[in-house]
Amino acid sequence: MESVRYLAGDSFLGRRDPRVLILVPALTVVTVALIQDLRLMAPAAAIALGYYASARIPFAAVRANWAFVALFVVILAGVNGLVAGTQQYHSSTMFAIPVIGVPVSSAAIAYAATMLLRFLAITATGFPLAFAIRPGDLAVAFARLGVPARFAYAIDLTFRFVPTVSTSLHETIAAQRLRGYEVAGTRNPVRRIRQLRPLIVPVTVGAFVDAEDVADALDLRGFGAQRRTWLRTIHFGAVDLAVIGAFALATILAVVATVSGTMPGLWYW
């Protein structure tokens, strides 16, 4: 049974070889990590968003994920970028951040905006890796990329195991409610964790038992004793090669520009 995490359907990325969705985020990380100029980072982020849009992932299904990313990016890249940019680059101060009194310059704003777009580009190309690859194709894709079979199969089991744990959690919650268990509303994080103890213990124990059963089943079938073959076969198409080639070219250009010293530095006004 496939995981509910697959949300791409028959979209452009949904029809691609799964190795494309693995290689593109890796190439994007290298590329945007080398770009410092906001004028170059903006089109890079736009391309990444276009790549994400081609997966046609329903926003309602990933709203919570994007909310978490937005909070993380604003705190880590936004606020931290302003502070770090002020310390690393010197330009005329425009205003000061209330309460903490940190002076903000045009260089700090440009640095923070560059970081925001960098994290946005990485997230946009990374989301299809989680939501646009069929769970049954993930292990095959890693194996065809040269990853050892044990590691590839561990990834496959992990993605198949997550829905199982989620189902077990819902069943445990229903069973506890039949016994009169209800979670009282509280903002105290310690108390919330203590209230979840009747759920955490049985779910965790059940997960370990299931994992041990799978490990025993693999050992009984001689897993790892010889080279593994995969029933599912995947092949690069012309469009797949074109997509990988375009992102690989961008990465090569960024690396060459950085090594040669022609990569523009931070741009600010």
Automatic annotation (TrEMBL):
Keywords: Cell membrane, Membrane, Transmembrane, Transmembrane helix. Pfam families: CbiQ (PF02361). The chain crosses the membrane at residues 20-52, 64-83, 95-117, 236-259. CDD domains: EcfT. The keyword Glycosyltransferase does not apply. PANTHER family: SLL0384 PROTEIN. This is Energy-coupling factor transporter transmembrane component T.
